[in-house]
Structures are given as C-alpha cells and as structure tokens.
Amino acid sequence: MKEKNFVSVVAYVHDDENAIPAFATMIGGVLSEQFQQYELIFVDDASTDGSADAIRRAAENLTGGMVQIVHMRHEAGF
User: Fold this and answer.
1) Nearest in space to 11 (alpha carbons), one of 62, 50, 63, 55
2) CA distances in angstroms from 67 to 1, 7, 23, listed in the order given
3) Which residues are registered as beta bridge partners of 41?
4) What is the pLDDT along the chain (78 residues), one digit of tens a residue?
5) How far is CA 42 from CA 3, 14, 38, 77, in A?
6) DSSP assignment, residue 46?
7) What is the pTM of this model?
C-alpha cells in the first residue's frame, strides 16, 4: 500500500557515472512502491566524468517521481 505522503531524497554525486543508472533504478523503484509522489534530488559536486549526462538519462527513465539536478561549479566535498 502506498503512503499518501510526499518524500524527497537527496543523492550526492561526484564522478559516479557508472553507478548512477543502477542507483536511480533501485531508489526509484523503492520510492514508487512506497509513495504516491516523490522527488529525487541529485547534487552533482563538480563531476569531471559523465555523471551529469548519466543523471539526465536516468531521470528520463524514472516514472512516478520528479527529478531535480543541482550542479555545483566547484567541488564542495560533501
């Protein structure tokens, strides 16, 4: 049974191009099963690989939720 609540999840990303597709699929699946609405926020900490493109591609494949991408110009090192 899905909760009626809305949840936001923040994911920090730095040079994680290869891990993003599997992570987005997994977390998107869990969130869509548990919540009617969700928001997945990716914080790209000045990645130098293809992380930003991987996030955009993953966002296109997620259903039932909203994806936000925050691009940091300089590495903050969260």
Assistant:
1) 55
2) 23, 12, 13
3) 10, 68
4) 565 688 999 999 999 999 999 999 999 999 988 888 899 999 999 999 999 999 999 988 887 788 999 988 877 776
5) 23, 10, 13, 14
6) S
7) 0.84
